[in-house]
């Protein structure tokens, strides 16, 4: 099966610690790389994944808080030092280009490639990127500043050719793409061979949603209904629920309630407050609401739709 992997670069909250880097992830869809958020230290973490920098052409910034974008300038500079020539596209709520253009002019004014900023609205969902493999849609979130999560949906793949049947009917190569796209085969004698005899269906398209940062918000449930993997912030344990409301964040148990209501296949918790030296308390509280829950950790690579068992107490 072609790749649909999530690489966790950082899963801490506002303060970087010796345990966690600030928020950042890379989504690998069929060897195209997409970065979500770019907290401090993201480029160092990206190097550890051994992913090719040249395949990262799109960065999605959820909101304009430093722990989600302070790593961006360094990453842009490094790409230039490596001789990058392909354009880099950065998507964010309004205001990021205004903040970063003076910094780019001061520190990166001789870049050998173009940096393009794209602004998206935060009030309603919208598709902000699309190619032959995937669409990326915004998920409006409720935070102290304009903020969106991101929903990655893989596009359906072509049917798989059954080689034995193709050989049996001596079907020429010129017909292969047509058959993959669902056409029946017509023999030279005029016999129609139904497509379902020649192919088997491809696996169902996969999906991934990233939701950080947000207060507990059931309004997102319908948009993420039934997805394969949900990353949801879990900044606090239940004992800090008042603090969560005050800062527009979510507890681990509340994230699990969202996962349960949305009937997602798996939940991945992240964006941990620096106050927790052991996030097991967050996992245990979430597991009471939703059994298919895991903790994110730096260096983790998750293949979407694969069964995971690590981190369960």
Description:
The protein has 313 residues and is an alpha/beta fold. 23% of the residues lie in helices and 26% in strands. It has 9 helices and 18 strands. It has helices at 42-49, 72-81, 96-107, 163-168, 176-180, 195-198, 241-247, 252-262, 280-287, and strands spanning 4-10, 24-29, 32-38, 56-60, 88-92, 115-119, 127-130, 134-140, 148-154, 160-161, 185-186, 192-193, 199-200, 207-211, 229-233, 266-270, 293-295, 301-303. It has a 7-stranded mixed β-sheet, with helices on one face. Strands 7-8-9-14-15-16-17 form a 7-stranded mixed β-sheet, with helices on one face. The chain has a two-stranded antiparallel ribbon with strand order 10-13. Helix 8 (252-262) runs parallel beside helix 9 (280-287). It starts with a strand and ends in a 10-residue tail after the last strand.
